[in-house]
Design a protein that fits this description.
Strand order of the largest sheet: 1-2-3-6-4-5
CATH superfamily: RutC-like
Structural class: alpha+beta
Number of domains: 1
Strand content: 25-35%
Low-confidence stretches: none
Helix content: 10-25%
Largest sheet: 6 strands, mixed
CATH topology: 60s Ribosomal Protein L30, Chain: A
């Protein structure tokens, strides 16, 4: 099965040996997104809701580069440093899935790259 790397300048560039997303067959596997502004490469400040908005915007850009959207997402994983942020992140997340509720896991982690509080990855159908 042929792999197709998906990349866009509308989401943060990969900062290591990975791709923003890889299409394989009829599935798209997206790397985790953190609250980085793709234009500056800087972490978006503010509260966790603002950071979650940036993460979801980055995910939207990667999905769009593959020609799909949030309605095509089948599974998400949310990584949180502080589970006290769950409700605020969940509210932002929920606005992106008004018609469709993908399978989801939420995991508490000790730390994330660049000291951010949140990372979300998705798997979608092409």
């Amino acid at each position: 099965m042929k792999l197709n790397v998906i990349s866009t300048d509308k989401a943060p560039a990969a900062i290591g040996p990975y791709s923003q997303a890889v299409a394989c067959g009829n599935m798209l596997f997206c790397s985790g997104q953190i609250p980085l502004d793709p234009a500056t490469g800087e972490i978006v400040g503010g509260d966790i809701a603002r950071q979650a908005e940036q993460v979801m915007g980055n995910i939207a850009a990667v999905l769009s580069a593959a020609g799909i959207g949030f309605d095509d997402v089948v599974k998400t994983t949310i990584y949180l440093v502080d589970m006290a942020d769950f409700a605020a992140v969940n509210e932002v997340y929920g606005r992106r899935f008004p018609n469709h509720k993908p399978a989801r896991s939420t995991v508490a982690v000790k730390s994330l790259p660049r000291g951010v509080q949140l990372e979300i990855e998705v798997i979608a159908s092409l």
